[in-house]
Amino acid sequence: MSNTLQPLSDHWRNRYLLMRHGHSQANQQGVIVSSPERGIENFGLSEYGEQQLSQLVADWQWPVPTRVVHSDFLRTTQTAARVAARFGLVPSVDKRLRERNFGELEGQGDDHYPSVWALDAEDAEHRHHQVEALSAVAQRMQAVIADWEQQVSGDTILLVSHGDPLQILLTALAKKPLTQHREQPPLLPASITQVGG
Question: pTM score, two decimals?
Fold first, then answer.
């Protein structure tokens, strides 16, 4: 699954591959796992997610990454490790790539997502249920790219993160209102979207 966006600026110094983790045990169980307390050591890839990644690395059809950076959650760590191993790279952690924190909805059914997204569509700053605001997610995700843009040039950097943060990031990069982040097609597990470069 590939989504390629046109470079959003003439001044990108690097190319970025934005990857959602493979299908996870949380996806399989239909539960929200967004807190570091639960997500760092538990809820890794499902068996299907492992199969997805085997296929993905065997049939790699994107530019070859020179760096792999990932959220410290188990599902993203395992995803990044599989891709990094394929290209002989050592992955590194950036906590800013973590899942959006869904606050009081942690551990509940993923059927709660649509109610949060409905609130998102009205207010990018809302914190209902102690959910992390869209603006806060966008800020930390964009900061990751901004930092790499200052540090290196000519690299292809694979950023392994989660569905909501990546959709919010892509919305911000496209200079659209963050309230519209659910208006684009959802990013599927193990999908890669190329930006910049």
Answer: 0.94
